[in-house]
Amino acid sequence: MGRPASGSPGGQRATIADVARLSGLSRTAVSLILNNRPGSRLSQEAIARVQAAAAELGYRPNPMAQSLRLGRTRSIGFVSDEVTVTRPASGILRGLLATARAHDHSVLISETSGDMSKVEEAIRILLDRHVDALVIGLVVARLVDVPDLPDGMPVVIVNGRTSNDLPSVLPDEATGGREVAQTLLTAGHRRIGIVSDVPEIAADPRRSVSIQTRFQHCTEALTEAGVEPVWSRTERWDPAVGYQETLRVMRAHPDLTALVAGCDQMAMGIYQGLTELRAPRPGGRLGHLVRRRGGGELPPPGAHHRAPGLPGDGPARDGDGARSTRPRPRAGADAARPPGLGPDPGARLSRRVAPLPPPGSAAPNTG
Question: Domain of 320?
Answer without folding.
Answer: 173-355
